[in-house]
Amino acid sequence: MSGPSRPGDAGDVAVRDATEGDIPRIVELFEYGSLIEGKEDPTDPAPYRAALREIAQGPGGVLLAEVGGEVVGVCQLIVFRHLQTRGGQCAEVESVHVHPELRGRGVGRVLMRAAVQRARELGCYRVQLTSNNARTEAHRFYEALGFEPTHRGFKLNLSQPPAGEGPGGVGATRGR
Length: 176
Description:
- Mean pLDDT is 89; it is low at 1-8.
- By secondary structure, the chain is of the alpha+beta class.
- Strand 2 and strand 3 form a beta hairpin.
- It has a single domain, classed as Aminopeptidase.
- It has five helices and five strands.
- The protein has helices at 23-33, 46-56, 84-87, 107-121, 136-144, and strands spanning 13-17, 61-67, 70-81, 89-98, 124-129.
- Strands 1-2-3-4-5 form a five-stranded mixed β-sheet, sandwiched between helices.
């Protein structure tokens, strides 16, 4: 792929909801941003289509950033109800990826602001996200948007068979 045209500023970025026709480009953006080679499978769009259909049934969604009609960024907004905070709704942003040739040009900022605005409109009291420890540039980006590193996240990889119990463990291998 040749690189997308470079926007002059964040005003060139439009945000919209993803459709099934966007799946190939979304998977391509996931691959650009993946820390694990081969994690995505662009040759099999069926599971991505099924996931997008299910996601579309909920209040969140998959948001896309476009420049000049070309999809150059993606994020997923997951909305769920907490029992705490008086049963308030919370939003989580996942899978934030911007085409590498457009990083640092305002695309991610516009995309994240749209996700936060959607969460506000849905009545969420908080937006949260996690970011891989290796992504220090992303951490600076999120902090510049006002996100604060208030918690430490943990993951348990359920896609591999248990390797055995550790002290007090639940029998899982180390996650990604």
